[in-house]
Each structure stands twice: as C-alpha cells, then as structure tokens.
Amino acid sequence: MIFDIISKIPSVCESLKSEALPIFLYGMGNGAEKIYAYLCRNGIEISGVVASDGFVRGQSFLGHEVVSISEAEEKHGRLCLVICFGTEGEKSRFLKELAKKHRIVSPNLPVFGEGACDKEYILANADRFERVYGILEDEQSRSLLLSLLKYNASGDISYLEINNGLVPPKDFYSHKMRHIDIGAYDGDTVNEFIGYNDEYSDIIAFEPDKATYKKLLKNTTGLRGVKCINGAAGRKNGKIGFSSGGGRASHCGEGEDAECYSVDEYCGYTHIAANGTPVGSIKIDAEGMDEAVICGAVNTIYCCKPSICVALYHRAYDIIDIPLLLRMHNRKYKFYLRKKEYIPAWDIFLYVTEGK
Predict the structure, then answer these.
(1) Contact 313, 319 (CB under 8 A)
(2) Pair (18, 82) in one structural domain
C-alpha cells in the first residue's frame, strides 16, 4: 500500500528539476545550508535567497544577495520558495497564505545528522513502513503516518494539515511510580505530567544545558518529589560532548563534557533480574539521542513496562527505527502517533503503552 501511494507522488527533487518558476531559498542559517547542499547534490540550482522584510539588511548568503520576498516578486513575479526554517502553531499559518500567491516547497531534512527520509528512502523501506503502519493503534495515528510520508516525499505543506496535538492516550500517565523526563528543558513537561498525574512517587528530570537547567530548577521548586539532574541520558553512564545552543540548537556528540546517565543504571536495572526503582513512564525528547536513550533503558523497559513518549523527528530515520525498536522490546505495547502544528514536520511524538 505505502509503495503504491508514495510512488505516484512527484518527489521534492523531481518537481524542482521541472520547475519553471525561479527557485529561491526562504531563510538563512544552518537549516538553509543543509537544504542548499541537498539541492546541489540533486542537481537543482537556485536563483537567490529571500528573507522576511525585518531580516533583510543588505547581507549575502551562499554567494547570493539576500532580498525581501516583495523585491524578488517585483523582479520575477510568482516564485518557488523553498522553506529553510521551522515555525509552529499560528505563526506557521502565514506560509499557507503565502502559498496562495507563490509555490511553497518544504524539504524535510533532519534536525540532526545526515540522510533524509525522502521518497527514495521511503520506497526502499516500504516494507518496514508497512510494519510501523500495522502496529499503530488508532485511525488518527495511521492517517497521520500516511500524511507525513506524503509530505516527506513531496515537500508539500498541505499534507501537514493533520495535527492531532500532543494529547496522550487515555490513562497513559496513570500510575503511582517514578516518572522520568529526559530533555526536561525549563520544566514545562514536568508540570504538564503533574497535570495528568498527581499520584506519582517521584520525578527525575534530566536537562544537560546549564542555562536551561537553572530555569528547570526555578520552575520545579516546591513540586513534590522532583529531582533535577544537570546531565544527559544515553546508552551508558559517563561523559559525553554537549554543545549548548539553547532549545533545538543544543545537542550531544560534540562540545564540552557533560554528565551522561543510562536509565537502566540510574534506576538500578543493570540486568533483567534486577530489583530497581519501579518506573511508570518515561518521556524522551533528547535532541538526536532519543534512540540511544532507549538502548540505555532496555532492562527498565523489560522489567517495568513503562509508558513511553518519545520524539520521532530529530534524525532522518527516527520515524521508522524507533517504533520498530520499541516493538522488538515489548510486543504488548500499543502505539499511537501524535503531532503538533509545525512546518516542517517537527514535534512528532510516539506514545507507547500496555494500557489498562
């Protein structure tokens, strides 16, 4: 089914190669550099770079003078704009209005790492995507997956209009055990969890960014049983390079040394017969370390069968690799896919639970 659906959709590069309109990158920065390199590898030339009026200050980018959209359309008329930034919620809706006047293309390249979950990759892994589709529990999850694959293949933002919000399945957080928040940021998700569950035993919140960790401490002061740790989570205990960029720009793998913990070792599940601290739920938003976090929590997953909420958008193949990895570790898990309103396809989360 997936092969038949995706094979009929023109890919991002196929459509851009045949595009009669002048092609402009819309935006600057690391994301634009990554998209530009992707287009160049696929033989696509751009006519220039545009930015919103408030960001045009006579600068140049990738050898092109940066001009406003109004300046570009005055010279060329209708444009093909390749989106090189992320925007969410109501802020993203101006792109839908812009699409009424110009053609909008939004390649979905990963926030971290290389590769792309594009048409070529989807078709080459159609059987694995069928497996993911088959384990999704409800129709909104299955519809969302198909829409995401259509978007990834085509770059057409109209496929991102399915947004079912980050609302966990019923009773997802209902337990009286430990909750682990990995990538706790400024405490927003700790407070969100407590809104669902006020009977937890304790909460362990990991946040490696020093500046954000201070906000986490401030925003969780006085909350029952919350312990904040200025560190990352991964495959094993030790040190890991960490680059602090604030929010989505922060990532592990390079930079100054930071403490790193595995969930298994922290909670006392160094082997599958261990008698560690009972864990009821784990939230993972680890900026590209999401799969590594799961690998460092396999004994906890085996022993405690916690509900897990995990990001699926940081690396190119998370959307397929992470669900199948969790399926391998617990075949009784039920899988739900949820997404916020975002362009490109960021803030996609998988919820897995054995249910009640």
Answers:
(1) yes
(2) yes
Are 105 and 237 contained in the same domain? no
- Count of structural domains, the chain: 2
Q: In whole angstroms, what is the distance from residue 343 CA to residue 210 CA?
A: 28
Q: Is residue 344 reached through a cis peptide bond, with omega within 30 degrees of 0 on the bond before it?
A: yes
Residue 141 forms part of a structural domain: yes
> Do residue 157 and residue 183 come from a single domain?
no
Whether 10 and 148 share a structural domain: yes
CA angle 71, 88, 144 (to 5 degrees): 120
Residue 23 tokens read as 């092609």
Report which DSSP code applies to 158. G
The pair of structure tokens assigned to 15 is 């459509």
Cα atoms in the Cβ-side hemisphere of radius 13 Å centred on 22: 15
> What 3-state class would DSSP assign to 274?
coil
Give the integer Cα–Cα distance in Å for 264 and 299: 6
CB 305 within 8 A of CB 330: yes
The predicted model scores a pTM of 0.93
How big is the chain by its Cα radius of gyration, in Å? 21
CA atoms within 13 A on the CB side of 67: 15
- C-alpha–C-alpha distance, residues 207 and 220, integer Å: 13
Would you give the DSSP letter of residue 53?
A: G
264 close to 296: Cβ distance less than 8 angstroms: yes
Question: How do residues 70-117 score in pLDDT, each as one tens digit?
Answer: 999 999 999 999 999 999 988 888 998 999 999 999 999 998 989 999
The C-alpha angle 205, 330, 293, rounded to 5 degrees, equals 30
For the segment 116-160, what is each residue's pLDDT rounded down to a tens digit? 999 999 999 999 999 999 999 999 999 999 999 999 999 999 999
What is the C-alpha to C-alpha distance for residues 306 and 173, in angstroms, rounded to an integer? 9
50 domain residue, yes or no: yes
